[in-house]
Amino acid sequence: MTATIAALQTSPQATMKAALDETLSLAAEAVASGAIFLGTPEYCGGLVSDGAVLVPPHANEEDHAYLAGLKQFSAENGVWFLVGSIAITASEGRIYNRGYLLDNTGLIRSRYSKIHLFDIQLSESEVYRESASVVAGSEAVVMDTPVGSMGHTICYDLRFPRLYRELAHSGAEILAIPAAFTKRTGEMHWHMLNRARAVENGAFVFSPCSVGDVPGGGAAYGHSLIIDPMGTVIADGGDATGVVLAEIDLALVEQARSRIPSLYHDREFMVAGNR
Predict the structure, then answer these.
(1) Do 212 and 190 form a contact (C-beta atoms < 8 A)?
(2) Domain boundaries in the chain?
(3) Confidence of residue 275 (pLDDT cuts 50, 70, 90)
(4) Which listed residue (42, 71, 173, 209) is catalytic?
(5) What is the pLDDT of residues 32-44, one digit of tens each?
(6) Where residue 263 falls among pLDDT bands split at 50, 70, 90?
(7) Among residues 25, 26, 129, 240, which one has the fewest Cβ atoms lying within 10 Å of its Cβ?
(8) Which whole number is the average pLDDT over 81-87?
(9) Rounded distance, CA 128 to CA 177, Å?
(10) What is the DSSP letter of 188?
């Protein structure tokens, strides 16, 4: 029931080729260290900003060079790969912020398009409008993997606990939260939110996060996390690129959920009051 997993803490890259080169180098290091399941951050296939708008390099799924490279790596090395998210061409000049699960033969097992888009204003000068270029998804995903049943979410989804509750009730033992969390919000909230999602649902949290300056402006926080079902951080990637390894034991999920069975105590209720 134990397995070694690896979060690849990559940096934001302006091109698919640069992104793929960096990812493959870290992936080879992770496999050499015994990892059987690998994961990458949000926009791992390239990330560029233009003011408040994200304009990452994108392509159709069938023509996406970065995705093709990871499919080939998975097949050649016999490992499963969570592609945190890449930009997939949509209509009318927009994109999908979409993640993929690849099996150990390189086949796509599932797709997830980010549901909650990052539209916030931190200050007069720091504004983000992901919805200006991205089409939101509408379907949550739980998929079976060799390391456990996994719910796939992306970055800003982290702030919406109901999504994770539904994933846990649907069988997720691991909550995947690949991200390109901003440095400023990461310093404030990244660790506490990830730990909360683990504790609330008695699940492992697997959160690869990119690190470093974003071409065009902004910076990603790093600190890729692997957290156990009681909320203990068992691996933290810090503030440099690299491989974040941890051994996980699924027995800890049932142990946490039996000791603190809040997942099974959910009840319907109404909100009353005068307004």
Answers:
(1) no
(2) 2-264
(3) confident
(4) 42
(5) 999 999 999 999 9
(6) very high
(7) 240
(8) 98
(9) 19
(10) I
Confirm if 213 and 12 have CB atoms less than 8 A apart.
Answer: yes
Q: For this structure, is 209 an active site residue?
A: no
Active-site annotation holder among 44, 71, 114, 209: 114
Confirm if 79 and 36 have CB atoms less than 8 A apart.
yes
Give the other-Cβ count within 10 Å of 245's Cβ. 18
CA–CA gap between residue 222 and residue 200 (Å, rounded): 23
How far apart, in whole angstroms, are the C-alpha atoms of residue 149 and residue 250? 10
CA angle, residues 251, 256, 259, in degrees to nearest 5: 125
Superfamily in which the 2-264 domain is placed by CATH: Carbon-nitrogen hydrolase (3.60.110.10)
Q: What is the pLDDT, as a whole number, of residue 209?
A: 98
The 3-state secondary structure of 17-38 reads: HHHHHHHHHHHHHHHHCCCCEE
Q: Please identify which residue in the block is written with the tokens 């209720």.
A: 269
| Active site (annotated) includes residue 155 | yes
pTM (2 decimals)? Answer: 0.96
* DSSP type of residue 230: T
Query: How many angstroms separate the first and last alpha carbons of the chain?
Result: 52
**Residue range 180-235, pLDDT digits in tens:** 999 999 999 999 999 999 999 999 999 999 999 999 999 999 999 999 999 999 99
Annotated active-site residue in 44, 71, 155, 173: 155
Phi-psi region of 217 (alpha: psi -120 to 50; beta: other; left: phi over 0): left
